[in-house]
Amino acid sequence: MNIQLLKSKVKQRSSIAITGSKSESNRLLLLQALYPNIKINNVSNSDDSQLMQNALVSKEKIVDIHHAGTAMRFLTAYFSIQKNRQTILTGSSRMKERPIAVLVNALKDLGADIEYIENEGYPPLKITGKEILKNKVTLKADVSSQYISALLLIASCLKNGLEVTLKGKITSVPYINMTLQLLSQIGVASNFYGNVITVNPQTDKIKSQILTVESDWSSVSYFYSIVALSEIGTEVKLSSYKENSLQGDSVLVKIYKSFGVDTVFEKNSIRLKKSKIVDRSVSIDLDLSNAPDIAQTISVTAFGLGLACHLKGLHTLKIKETDRLVALKTELEKLGAEVSITNNSLMLKTSGIIKENISVATYNDHRMAMAFAPLALKTNINIEDANVVSKSYPDFWKDLKHIGFNIK
Ligand SMILES: O=C(O)C1=C[C@@H](OP(=O)(O)O)[C@@H](O)[C@H](O)C1
Ligand SMILES: C=C(OP(=O)(O)O)C(=O)O
């Protein structure tokens, strides 16, 4: 489905409710499978969380998690400890290009039985579940934090607990902290000191409890972009959010101040307000190694406002749903931007024009579609394969219509 966004103006005041964080949901769903006493409120309605739920109840030998990176990584660890069961864990053709050797090697070092079915180092995997007794492992921490979270999520179920030593510069750190904080919320003790994380084996029963997932901050990024590209005074209210988030992408509050957007925390929601025009001489200079998922949104906002932008710490973008650095450069340039990229950075020059009626390709990447949509506040734009948004935010186009976007 390709869609046409006609040049739009959003309502001066509007409200949106977004469902739970996909990252928190996928962690809690796995913990719930290990500790069924846990109940979860406000689970994400994303495809990735639906796939995670289906995989966890599936009795089939082949489990297909399509494009869901967290599901692939977390379930590799989960199925490794499901005794008396062999699982073929597979995914989309892109998933078969997303590396998993760092996690598989760590699990095998601990004693797990995992084989590659097609290419060495990549899904699909044949996992024969067994008891893991070893409790010390070292792995590279600069490729994806999801490998580390995967190990931590099963750690408390291992007979002897787990001590994980991290090598290299740790990437996407807030996601590791999110895992540890959720473990702590359910009653599992851990310790993260220097480059070593320890999780104790869980000997006491996990208490019955209901956990409420905070709504998804990565999804809010598109509304920050929309407000940044709107007139002074435009407001969007979003629920359900809190000031002390477990999600690293809540750094949006700070980042979008540079784009003239203020955030007010209310009882159970946030109100984004365009409060000032940003001077064209401002240059956005950020290291996003702790918040990689908002790199596309920020680059497109900067382009929409004609600002220069230099983003660093983007090495993980090359192995996500697509090579997001190449995709961003290609699509921004179609619209008239001047962009240069390296393996871990993106540089955008100031610009004055946005070409009209350009068709933006989305490369099976939900964030490409959602990051470029706000440009409809400046010009007519087409988004190809617009239904890719369902990976994390199935209601995205409905919510955009609701706040005033003119979608054909
Ligand atoms: O643990 C998680 O929930 C995630 C970790 C990040 O991945 P990397 O650690 O691979 O950067 C992030 O990009 C992804 O969307 C979700
Ligand atoms: C990278 C992402 O997801 P995953 O790695 O879980 O596929 C994302 O949602 O931007």
Description:
- It is found in: Cytoplasm.
- InterPro entries: Enolpyruvate_Tfrase_dom, Enolpyruvate_Tfrase_sf, EPSP_synthase, EPSP_synthase_CS, RNA3'P_cycl/enolpyr_Trfase_a/b.
- Catalyzes the transfer of the enolpyruvyl moiety of phosphoenolpyruvate (PEP) to the 5-hydroxyl of shikimate-3-phosphate (S3P) to produce enolpyruvyl shikimate-3-phosphate and inorganic phosphate.
- The protein has 408 residues and is of the alpha/beta class.
- It folds into 2 domains: 3-18 and 215-407, Alpha-beta prism (UDP-n-acetylglucosamine1-carboxyvinyl-transferase, Chain), CATH 3.65.10; 22-212, UDP-n-acetylglucosamine1-carboxyvinyl-transferase, Chain, CATH 3.65.10.10.
- The protein is 30% helix and 23% strand.
- The chain is built from 12 helices and 22 strands.
- The chain has helices at 22-34, 47-57, 69-80, 101-109, 145-155, 173-186, 217-228, 252-255, 295-304, 324-334, 366-372, 396-403; strands at 3-6, 13-17, 38-41, 62-64, 86-90, 113-116, 125-128, 136-140, 162-167, 190-193, 196-199, 209-212, 235-239, 261-265, 269-274, 283-287, 308-312, 339-341, 346-348, 358-360, 381-383, 406-407.
- The strands form 6 sheets. Strands 20-21-1-22 form a 4-stranded mixed β-sheet, with helices on one face. Strands 2-13-15-14 form a 4-stranded mixed β-sheet. The chain has a 4-stranded mixed β-sheet with strand order 4-5-7-6, covered by helices on one side.
- Strand 6 (113-116) and strand 7 form a beta hairpin.
- Helix 2 (47-57) runs parallel beside helix 3, helix 3 runs parallel beside helix 5 (145-155) and helix 5 (145-155) runs parallel beside helix 6.
- The chain binds shikimate-3-phosphate (S3P) and phosphoenolpyruvate.
- The site of phosphoenolpyruvate (PEP) has 9 residues, from helix 3.
